[in-house]
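Workshop exercise sheet. Pairs work together: one partner reads the sequence aloud, the other fills in the structure field after running the prediction. Swap roles for the next sheet.
Pair: D.N. / O.F.
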Amino acid sequence: MILAISVISCSSSYNKKGRPIATNLFRSEQVTTYTIPGFLIRYAMLATSETRELRPAFKGVSSVSIAVSDPKIHCNSLFSKINFTLNSHNYNTLLEIIDDHSNVTLKVLLEENRVRELVILIEDEKSLVCVSVRGKID
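Structure field:
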């Protein structure tokens, strides 16, 4: 098994509008996308004491979107296209993990030292899963 990990530091650059684009990008690529509002996530975290401890970490989160590709779509080309588009809109790569059967990429869009969007792309031979956490996160 080949495993390559690269960690790249973030620069403070952001796209001119500083607006998150990942969720709209997923939808434009015909990837099934589900969006959960941040207040609903924080409300659900009141259920147990363990989740209450995590609640402050979600303070600035406005929404979480989860996108799952159709198994019929060629995931490798879709992964590359989404990755390229995010890079061209000033998303910084925090982490890339590449092995024989899958790729995982963690990207972030910064605005004034705040995270506007955190995107996780997970691609394997059969599917592509994308998670977008939007907000103004410290």
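Discussion prompt: Strands lie at 4-7, 32-37, 61-68, 92-98, 102-111, 114-124, 128-137. What would you look at next?
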